[in-house]
Each structure stands twice: as C-alpha cells, then as structure tokens.
Prior knowledge:
This protein is α+β, with helices and mostly antiparallel strands.
Amino acid sequence: MMKTSDLSCCLFLTAMMLTAACDPGAPVDSKAIKEEIQSRKIRKVSASDIMTRALNTGEAIQAEVTRQHLASLLAVEKGIDRCSLPSLPAVVAAQARGIEVSRISLNPRRRGRALDSVEVAVYEAFEYAARRQLKIIPSLEELNETTLRYWAPIYMKQACQGCHGKKGLQIDAKTNKLLQEQFPEDQSFDFEEGALMGLWRIKIPKKEIIKNL
C-alpha cells in the first residue's frame, strides 16, 4: 500500500508536470507538430487520379525504353541479339519499382505463351486503327485489384529492318541464317516501315502509383 507521504509526492510531481506542459511560455516545436499533423492526414485518392498517373507513368517508361532500345540498335554492329530488353537501364529501373516491361506480337520471333483473349482483343483494336490510319494512342486497363496494364503500339522503324524487314532485301543472308538457327519458328519479318509490329505491355502495381501521388 502506498504511504500518504508517497502519494502526496506523486500528486505534487504530476501537478508540476501538467503545469509545465500547459505553460504558455514553454517553447513549441512547430515543425514537429506540422509533421505529425501531416502524417495523420488521410488523403483521398480517386480512381481517376490513379489511372491518370499510371497512364503518365506508362508513357514515360515506354518512351525511355524505346529511346534506349533504338540507341542500342544504332550503336551496335549488325547482330540478332540487339533487340534484347532486360539489360536496358530503363527496364532495370522499372523492375526495381515492381513494374514489368515486355512486348507482345501476333508475329513473334520466339514461340511463347499464347496471348489470352483480352490481349488478342487489344491487339486487334490497335491493328484496326493502324489499317485505317486512325490516330492511335496508348491505353490503360485494370488487370486486377492490384495491377494496371498499359498498352502502346510498336511500329516498324528503319533501324529494325536488318532483322525484321524483307528477307533478301533488308535481311541479308548471314542474318537470315542466324535467325533460322536461333529462332526456327520465327514469324517476325517482312514488315514494312511504319507497320504495326507489336505492342508494349507494361504492368504497373497500383501501390507504386498511390505512394507517389
């Protein structure tokens, strides 16, 4: 049991602490208070905000990957390994953020997983617009509750003709032989400049977008 003298001492110390805390002359750390208030704020983020930022993020990544990819094609001597994406700095930086950058095509160089019904539908929509020379803009879809998927067209450029152009014309015999050896099921050739070759497919986690809003 606490003695009367001890109880009086505790009450006195408590009163002193409260008095000090309420002292209008005590210094106030306004910066700390502002930071605390800011940390406690609940920000309202709309679906529109997320989609807009995700679309901008996809466009920025796609533009930088395309720039770096074309630069590597122009900088390296002829060879069939110049189209590799994984080593590009922009792709590596995106992966560090949990963002997946890839390409799909109805005429792939290497057989892989077949496109699902949604991917085929998106591809056909871009093809339809390309055939009719309609304005083609990137698009964004909600893949699931946690991920958004960005789409943008890949057009045949002059720098790509050495591996994806017409055999015997832009693709020389040496390159053609290497392609047949490494990609026996190759379908990615005979494209004319400006033709739709494939699509950029960029998967973006929503949490990566939200934390940067």
